[in-house]
Amino acid sequence: MLKRVFVILSVLVLSLFSVNAFAYVMTWDYTVSSVFIDSTFSAGNGDAPVITDTSLSWGNTTLQYPIQSSLVLDPAVVVDNVDTYVGGGAVPNINNYWAPDISITHNNYVIPGDSISLLSTVIHSTVALAPNPFNPFPAATFDVDIAFFETPNDGTDENDVFALLSGFPNFNFSYDNGDGDGLVDYFVNVFPSNGEVLSLLTGPYADFVGVDDNTTMGFTTVEGQSTTLPFVFTISTEPLNVVPEPGTFVLFGGGLLGLIFYARRRRQ
Question: What is the pTM of this model?
């Protein structure tokens, strides 16, 4: 009996040692660049939309309404590094595990009702990861589809509405750093660092953007204010199930085969 217990304990010790000895890449240099693509606008009169890679502006300018509404990506390019979180579940809210990504800001101004306005856009992001100090691998891309609705400025339901049609990118990939361990799995997750801005769209706001009630993540913005949704991303060795505080949102899945990111785009 004692011999059997000793054998079992020995196996457990060896198993723990094997897991702990597994060589992960612990730091990644990265570059994220993001642009708007495939933007669509409603029919209307007056000023044409002003479109650049990182900003979309719309709405007629008059003496009464002197400023167009706009949607802005900032910064256009993020260069930084992030540490690998060894584990899964809910990653700790610690700066070295939360890598800064882009922020989306809606500058919401009252515009005339006959104005051309934004209907939808796609944020196209390119992510280049360089496992420090090992060799980098090809950049990956993913798209985030956004539906937008400009509410009538008539005193009812005045908040404008955004819906994230493709959810949050949540990818996995395999990488061999050449130390003899072979391919090792890593998981990349993109999510908002301010969970108070984002929620499930319900009621009239879900109807405005054509999604089912209480099923699609999105946010609404108050007239006359600027609302910013900042994003971060993490790299972990196991899947993440939820976003850490202050948000508690389930991450929506994607997948990566080898080193090729798969991006789900909602297109007819």
Answer: 0.78
